[in-house]
Design a protein that fits this description.
CATH class of chain B: Alpha Beta
Radius of gyration of chain B: 17 Å
Bound molecules: iron/sulfur cluster
Largest interface: A-B, 71 and 50 residues
CATH topology of chain B: Alpha-Beta Plaits
CATH architecture of the largest domain in chain A: 3-Layer(aba) Sandwich
Shape of chain A: globular
Strand order of the largest sheet of chain A: 5-4-19-18-17-6-7
Distance between the termini of chain A: 36 Å
Number of domains of chain B: 1
Strand content of chain A: 15-25%
Largest sheet of chain B: 4 strands, antiparallel
Largest sheet of chain A: 7 strands, mixed
Radius of gyration of chain A: 26 Å
Number of strands of chain A: 33
Number of strands of chain B: 4
CATH topology of the largest domain in chain A: Dimethylsulfoxide Reductase, domain 2
Structural class of chain A: alpha/beta
Number of helices of chain A: 26
Structural class of chain B: alpha+beta
CATH superfamily of the largest domain in chain A: Dimethylsulfoxide Reductase, domain 2
CATH class of the largest domain in chain A: Alpha Beta
Order of helices and strands of chain B: EHEEHEH
Number of helices of chain B: 3
CATH architecture of chain B: 2-Layer Sandwich
Strand order of the largest sheet of chain B: 2-3-1-4
Strand content of chain B: 25-35%
Oligomer: heterodimer
Helix content of chain A: 25-40%
């Protein structure tokens, strides 16, 4: 590289760093004396063209500026215009460009040769034909497994294809594994899904409580937002309630290590203290809350309960009683009670997988909402509950588009006739096209796929897009690997790299990723984020959305009646400006028109019912995302909403109401405070399997590592997984740093090196293993027990034993 | 030759800050830019990913450094990397 060019790049780097400081400084509180101009333009490097995109990884939804030269991403800068990250990125975010360029990208369709068991290249035409014919054999025995990394148009197309086209509800996303309990928690508390609050709360909170959450590694830019306030001298108290010491704990003021699963008891204890000391927010509770308990038979919306009955039930959850259950000291539990009793403090609760991957996930979500509701710490800037998502569009594509087995777009469900009719009307389908029976949720779907047809396994063919269930499902021997023996089952996988899922695929479709295609994500704070394709995908890789449309069209050619609407048109018909049909099912024409824009505009009509009005596509093009409901004001400007259900912030709240839960399940504008007692989890350590196993993520890798393990810097920084163990446990079983052990459960085993006092530090009696490592898959060991309402499995606790092996591995 | 732009959150103790600035400026891989309040803009230029990692580690361990955010990166190395993969090793054509 020439000296001149290098100097340009260095100058660009310096200007980006300086600009990010200016952006941060200009967003300081009123007390700040610093006032610098915000530099919003991307760095200038000759030949490099810049455009915006959300980061491909976590649900934080940071925006990056992508620098492209000669059809290749060459630079990444934090986006100064983005309110989410104000120009900052975490280690994954700034390496996001490299995920496109691992040398083993899948670039051609591959079909497994049944004789040699090898995957062999085939043409796209052949691949689409094979997929369509497999589906046509038995459309009702086909399942579509998708993702919270699907873009909104990809998810919407899959949803319409399945529920509107095939009349088959066996579509579910991997988000079932990461945030389904948050969904059921919101639904049963407020009557409608998704957070009412937003990230701005982190700029105002006095106290941030982390419920089994490690944002220092999982949502680093959000954590940075808190750390930054502290570094400026602001007081933000961090309280970490979890089952191991993490990087987040190291920055926390109070670390409360609890016994696994006992968050339920802790939340009840906070409420018990507020009620017994008569320091709950009576006005808020009376005006805005009802009390609720389980019904018989159990249902998501439960049965009413009187306040007196609630008080009677919760009475026993005193700090002393809960100390015995949870292991958290009574004085720490009192500290929590005192905080929530203090109306002058602004408190944010943050959570993600720790509370969601829980066999009582719905219950603990209800309880944390309940703590905030009954204490009145709700709906004010810096004061309220905020759940986070792990994937970039778990909210946008899964929760809003409704790509779950029971759901329809815009908060509708297949069971409700009225909802089905609305969808049939908007999709211009014949009456009664949509099936009223919910499809299989993820665990059930894979169970059926991995069970022989002769013994009741009624899913024969599955299409997996944008996810890696071969590694991310729990208990993978049962739920995925069992497929290897079932020759009658056919697995279609759209992927960007070979991974654990493609190893069992019968047909592999090479996919375009991130800025190789147009896209729209929806992040954890209701922010819908759009980007354009900026580089071409490698080889013959193509968009996932195109694959769905092409298969649908081939099914129509094969005579499947569901692929036509009531006027006989293709269900994915897109027209040009003159009203002529564009053959978007042909790849060479797919980008003749902006298919994303067409699908999103159609989808947008579904979003008004539950007041989740997304902005028009063209408004999203201009912005760094907009938080719904997005409503046009009297001057014709589109305005986003920061706090839902709050008068003044949410246009749908009636004047004079203050707070209005306008989708209340009790139809009285009130939220529900649930009675949810503590009960033991389904598997606990015993003499045979004496340790708790918890699994999770690490800073450097994103989920199963398919992308981040191809980025040299990230793979080298964290090359393989490990088993975190407490020093005293290690001494007791006679293993030292780096020694190999076998971690074994009733379901499987795995050999791993021990890390003592490493990245995280579990207490005595528990171990932790990250799940990113394709070569050492801890999900061979985990349990697939799930929450009764959300059907989300619990990856955070099962019982294992640890057996020493006489070898050592470099950590 | 990775080039990154860093926004470093630093201590507000003046005696530690001046020592920190001295330490960073002694290393030719770094170039110091805007210093405003608790933030310092720095460019890091290294020969390869390995050196980049070492320099980051060194920087993060300097007294006075609270937190490092990377806000810009220019790559010239991607496209050559293949981590071990069961898919690649066992089953791909
Ligand atoms: S915090 Fe999440 S969205 Fe932001 S840069 Fe990191 S991985 Fe990307």
């Amino acid at each position: 590289m020439s000296l001149g060019r290098r100097e340009f790049i260095k100058a660009a780097a310096l200007s980006a760093a300086s600009a990010s400081i200016a952006t941060q400084s200009s967003s300081l509180s009123a007390s700040s004396t610093v006032s610098l101009p915000v530099v919003e333009e991307p760095p200038k490097i000759p030949g490099v063209k810049w455009d915006k995109a959300p980061c491909r990884f976590c649900g934080t939804g940071c925006h990056v500026m992508v620098g492209v030269e000669n059809d290749k991403v060459v630079a990444i800068a934090g986006d100064q215009k983005a309110a989410v990250n104000k120009g900052l990125l975490c280690v994954k975010g700034y390496h996001v460009g490299s995920i496109l360029y691992g040398i083993d990208r899948l670039t051609t369709p591959l079909l497994r040769n049944q004789k040699t068991n090898e995957l062999e290249p085939i043409s796209w035409d052949n691949a689409i034909d094979i997929a369509a014919k497999r589906i046509m054999q038995a459309p009702e025995r086909f399942a579509f497994y998708g993702s919270g990394q699907w873009t909104i148009p990809e998810g919407y197309a899959a949803q319409k294809f399945m529920k509107g086209g095939l009349a088959n509800n066996h579509i579910d996303p991997n988000a079932r594994l990461c945030m389904a309990s948050a969904v059921t928690g919101f639904l049963s508390t407020y009557g409608v899904d998704e957070p009412a609050s937003c990230y701005d709360d982190l700029d105002h909170a006095d106290v941030v409580i982390l419920w089994g959450n490690n944002p220092a590694e999982m949502h680093p830019v959000l954590f940075s937002r808190i750390v930054d306030r502290r570094s400026k001298g602001e007081t933000v108290k961090l309280i970490d309630i979890g089952t191991r010491i993490t990087r987040t704990s190291e920055q926390s003021d109070h670390v409360m290590l609890m016994n696994p699963h006992t968050d339920l008891a802790i939340a009840n204890c906070i409420i018990q203290q507020l009620i017994s000391s008569d320091r709950y927010d009576k006005e808020f509770a009376e005006k805005h809350c009802n009390f609720r308990q389980d019904s018989d038979p159990a249902g998501l919306f439960g049965a009413p309960m009187s306040f007196d009955a609630y008080v009677k039930e919760i009475k026993k959850y005193t700090p002393e009683y809960v100390e015995k259950i949870s292991g958290v000291s009574a004085s720490d539990l009192r500290l929590l009670g005192e905080l929530f009793a203090d109306p002058s403090k602004k408190i944010v609760s943050l959570w993600c997988m720790g509370m969601n991957q829980h066999t009582a996930g719905t219950a603990i979500n209800n309880l944390v909402h309940g703590v905030h509701l009954i204490s009145g710490h709700w709906g004010k800037p810096g004061d309220g509950p905020q759940s986070l998502t792990g994937q970039p569009s778990a909210c946008g594509t899964v929760r809003e588009v409704g790509t779950l087995a029971h759901a329809l777009p815009g908060g509708r469900i297949v069971k409700k006739k009225e909802h089905r009719e609305q969808c049939e009307k908007l999709w211009n389908l014949p009456e009664n096209r949509i099936n009223s029976k919910p499809g299989y949720h993820t665990v059930k779907m894979f169970e059926q796929f991995c069970t022989p047809a002769a013994t009741g396994g009624d899913i024969d063919c599955m299409f997996v897009q944008v996810t890696n269930p071969g590694q991310s499902l729990p208990n993978t021997h049962k739920l995925f690997k069992a497929k290897s023996k079932l020759k009658e089952k056919f697995l279609i996988v759209a992927e960007v790299y070979p991974n654990a899922t493609t190893t069992l695929a019968d047909l592999v479709l090479p996919a375009a990723m991130w800025v190789e295609k147009n896209g729209i994500f929806g992040n954890s704070e209701r922010r819908t984020q759009q980007w354009f394709r900026q580089v071409n995908p490698p080889g013959e890789a193509r968009d996932d959305c195109w694959m769905t449309i092409a298969i649908a069209h081939r099914l129509m050619e094969l005579g499947h009646p569901g692929m036509k609407d009531r006027d006989g048109n293709f269900i994915f018909r897109v027209n040009d400006d003159d009203g002529n049909e564009v053959p978007a099912w042909k790849w060479e024409h797919y980008y003749d028109i902006n298919v994303d824009r067409a699908l999103f505009s159609e989808y947008r009509q579904f979003t008004f019912l539950k007041h989740k009005d997304v902005a028009p596509y063209d408004e999203l093009v201009k912005s760094r995302g907009m938080r719904w409901p997005v409503i046009k004001d009297e001057n014709g400007n589109w305005r986003e909403t920061r706090w839902r259900f709050v008068e003044g912030a949410d246009k749908y709240v009636e004047k004079g109401k203050g707070f209005q839960f306008y989708h209340s399940t009790t139809k009285d504008d009130k939220a529900q405070v649930w009675w949810r007692p503590y009960a033991d989890p389904p598997e606990m350590p015993d003499n045979e399997y004496p340790f708790w196993l918890c699994t999770g993520r690490v800073l450097e890798h994103w989920h199963t590592g398919t992308m981040t393990r191809r980025v040299k810097q990230l793979a080298q920084a964290m090359p393989h997984t490990y088993l975190e163990m407490n020093a005293s446990d290690a001494a007791r079983i006679g293993v030292g740093q780096g020694d190999q052990v076998i971690v074994e459960s009733r379901r499987g085993s795995l050999k791993l090196p021990v890390w003592i006092d490493g990245r995280g530090r579990p207490p005595k009696g528990s171990v932790f293993v990250p799940f990113f490592d394709e070569l050492n898959q801890i999900n061979d060991v985990t349990l697939h027990a799930y929450d009764p309402f959300s059907k989300q499995p619990d990856y955070k606790k099962c019982a294992v034993r640890i057996l020493p092996v006489n070898s050592r591995k470099e950590l | 030759m990775p080039v990154s732009g860093l926004n470093i959150t630093i201590t507000d103790k003046p005696h530690i800050t001046s020592k920190l600035l001295e330490n960073i400026s002694r290393d030719p891989s770094f170039e110091i830019g805007l210093h405003e309040g608790n933030h310092l803009a720095v460019v890091l230029e290294t020969n390869d990913a390995q050196q980049d990692k070492h320099k980051h580690r060194w920087l993060s361990q300097l007294p006075g450094v609270i937190h490092i955010d990377v806000v810009f990166i220019y790559f010239d190395e991607h496209g050559e990397y293949l981590s071990d993969s069961i898919g690649t090793c066992e089953n791909m054509a």
